């Protein structure tokens, strides 16, 4: 399983998942639909947290 973190466009409310491996702090992620800069919302963080918890529960 790959861990993805979602960013949300404040304008059109679309979400874009980015692989955590590719995540780099300070990098701008623009919405492919409208070009606005996407943001991390608390909703995004909550779903990431749920993903992370199920990821940690998986046997390795
Ligand atoms: Zn957008």
Beta-strand segment tally? 2
**Largest β sheet strand count, sense and barrel closure:** 2 strands, antiparallel
**Poorly predicted spans:** none
Q: What percentage of residues falls in helices of 4 or more residues? A: 25-40%
The end-to-end distance, rounded to whole angstroms, is 11 Å
> How much strand?
15-25%
Helix/strand/pairing class, anyone? alpha+beta
Distinct ligand kinds:
zinc ion
Radius of gyration: 12 Å
Spatially, the strands of the biggest sheet line up as: 1-2
Q: Mean pLDDT across all residues, rounded?
A: 92
Overall shape: elongated
Number of domains: 1
Structure overview:
The protein has one helix spanning 42-57, and strands at residues 4-8, 15-19. The chain has 60 residues and is α+β, with helices and mostly antiparallel strands. It has one domain. A two-stranded antiparallel ribbon has the order 1-2. β1 (4-8) and β2 form a beta hairpin. The longest helix is centred in the C-terminal third of the chain and has 16 residues, at 42-57. The radius of gyration is 12 Å and the shape is elongated. The mean pLDDT is 92. It binds zinc ion.
């Amino acid at each position: 399983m790959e861990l993805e973190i979602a960013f949300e466009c404040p304008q059109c409310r679309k979400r874009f998942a980015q692989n955590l491996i590719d995540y780099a702090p300070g990098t701008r992620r623009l919405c492919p639909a409208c070009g606005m800069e996407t943001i991390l919302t608390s909703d995004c963080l909550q779903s990431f947290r749920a993903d992370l918890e199920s990821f940690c529960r998986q046997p390795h």
